[in-house]
Amino acid sequence: MSALACALTTLHADNNSVANTPIYELKEYIVSAGPVARAIEDYSSPFTSLDEAAIRKEGGSSLGELLDGQAGVTATSFGGGASRPIIRGFDGPRVRILEAGLGSLDVSETSPDHAVSVEPLLTDRVEILRGPSTLLYGSSAIGGVVNVMGKEIPRERVDSTGYEGAIETRYDSVSNGETHLGYGTIGGEHWTLSVTGLKRNADNYEIAGDAEAFHEEAHDHDEHEEASSDELGSSFVETDYYSVGGSWSFGEQNYIGASFSSYNSNYGVPGHEHEHEEEEDDHDHDHDDEDEHAEEGVAIDLERKRFDLELAIFDPIAWIEAARVRFGYTDYQHIELEGDETGTVFERDGLELRAEAAHYEWSIIDEGIVGIQISDTEFEATGEEGAAFGPATQTRNQAIFISEHIHHGDWHYEFGGRLETQQINAAGTTDYSDMAMSLAVGIIYDINERNSLALSLQRSQRHPTSTELYADGEHIATSQYERGDANLGLETAYGVDLTYRYQGNKWEASASLFYTYFEDYIYAAEADATALGIVSELDVYAYDHVNANFYGFEAELNRILFRSEDSQLQVGLMSDFVRAENRDGNDNLPRIPPLRMGGKIQWAHGKWDAGLLLRHAFEQNDTAPLETETDAYTELKADLAYTFQLGSGIDLTLFAQANNLLDEEIRHHTSYIKDVAPLPGRNVTIGARMEF
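User: That's the sequence. What structure does it adopt?
Assistant: C-alpha cells below.
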C-alpha cells in the first residue's frame, strides 16, 4: 500500500479502548493541498471530502448533484445534464473545479446550462477546500475549490494479485435511466495500467407537479392548470466516457503517469420549448413544424478530449519532502442544437502546467508548499448566441504561490499568498492585463485534546472573466441580454472564518461562521436598455462593480449511538445558511440558497448497510429585483445495500437508493430556470456492483 493510501485511512478505536479514547480518531487527510497528504487538523478552514464509497452512495450523475447537501454546498440545476457546485452562495468563476489539481478547462463557469465535464461515478475522491488553502489553486477561488481525484492515472501499485477493478450497472425509475460502468487496473513490480468506461442513457425525468411554478401575481389558475405535465421536457441525458492511463514507479514511492480521456454528452436544455414554438409561429411555419420543433427543443452536444501527465518524486533533495509536476491539455467543444439546427458552437483549447514542492522544517516554519502555475487557453463562441459571450479570446495566466505552517505548542499558524498575472487578448476590442495579489492567515488553538478553535483571515483578488468584460448579446439560457464592461478591474474580497471543532468519545461536531466583504464585486445587474442603446425583448443586464456582503454559517453534528464488533448505528445533524447583500443598492443579490436543516441515520451490520436522510429547505424570500421567491420543500432519501462475498477476492453488492420519497416539488433557488424546471420527482434506483 502506498504512502498516500495509508494517509487516507481513517482509524477508529475499538470497544476495548479506554473510556476517554475517542471513537473518532482524526486521521483523515487532505490530498488536494500539495504533493503530500496533510491532516485536516492542520487547516484552519472547513474541509469536506467524499471517498469512493460515499460517492457511490450519493450516486449523482453530475458534480453539482453529487455534492448538493454537503454542509455549505448547494448546486445549480439546469435539467438532467448540467449542475455545478455552489459554495456559500458563490458560483461560476468563484468556485474552481479541478481534476487532480488542474482546471477542468470546460466552459461550465460561463453559463449555468453548460455541464461540468467530470464523471462522478468514476471518481476516487472529491475534496472541497475553503480559506487559505484555496490560494494554492487560483485567486478566483474566493468561494472555494472542488478537487476531483479520478481514476485516469494510477497513482498506487496494485496488490499482490496484480489486478483490481469493478463493474456496475444501475437503473433509475424517474427517467428510465440506465448507467453501466467499469474500471480495471493491472500491474507488475514497476508498471500499472488502468482503463475506465461509462455509458448513461436517461429519458426526460418525471416531476412531482407542474413544470411551471405558480406565482399568484403572475398567473391565473386556468393557465396554471393547462401547464400541467408529468415530465420535464428536454431533461434527457446521454453520456459516454472512457479513459486509458498508465504509470511507472521507481524508488519506493516515485512515479510518472499519463492518461487520455474522452467525455461525450448529449443532453437537453429545459425551459425553451415554448419559446421556440413562438419563434416558429412568428416565422409563419405550419403547425406540424411548430410541434416538431417544440418537441425537440434545445440540446447540447458536448465533446471533450483530455491528456494528462503527472510526475511525483519524494525526497529528491535534503530539504524537499516531495515534488509534483502536472500537465494537462484539453480540447473542448460543444454545439447547442435547436431541433436539428446548429445554434451556437463553443470551443476551448487549453493547457495548464503546475509544479509544486513540499519542504521540510526551515527556520521557524515546520512545513510548507511553494509552487508555480501557468495556463494558456483559447475560447470562442460562434453562432446565434456568440455575441453573448464576447469575441474570440486568448487568456494567459501565470502565478506563484506559497502555503506555510508553524506549530507552537497548542497554537498552529497557517499563512499563504498568491501572486497572479492574467492577460486576455480579445479580437477587435480592448485587451485586459492586470496582477492580482491574495493573502491569507489562519490560527488554530487546541483548547484541549478534543476541542479546537480556528480563525482564518483572507484577502483575495479575482480577475474578471472574458464574458464579464466583453459580453454583448442575448443569452437564451438565462433569458437575459447581457452587456459586459471592458473597463472592469479586479474584484477584491476580505473574508473571516471562525470554526469550532470537537472530537469526543462518541461525538464529532463542527460549526463555522463566515463573513466576506467585497469591494468591486462583479455581477450582472438590471440595466436601462434605452440608455445602453439595446433593443431586445429580453430583460437587459449589464456587468458592473458593487460593494457586497456575504455572511452565514455551517454546522454539523455526528453521534455514534451504538457500536459493536460488526455493527454501528450513527446519527447526524446539519444546517447551513448564507445571506448576500448589495450594499450599494440596499437589496439582495440573486440566486442565494435558503436556510437548510437536516438529519440522517446510518446503520451497518455485517453485510448490510442502510441510511436515511431528511432535509428541509426553507422558503427563500430574500430576493433580488425581478427575482421570484421559492417555496420551502422537504427532501427524504434512503439507501440499502447488501454485499455477498463470492470468494477469490470477489464481492457482489446489490443496492437500492430512493430520492425525493415524499414526491415533493423541489425548485432550487439557485437555478435560473427554477420557475419552469423543477428537480425530479420520486425516484428509485436499483443496481449491482461487482468488485474484484
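The radius of gyration is 25 Å.
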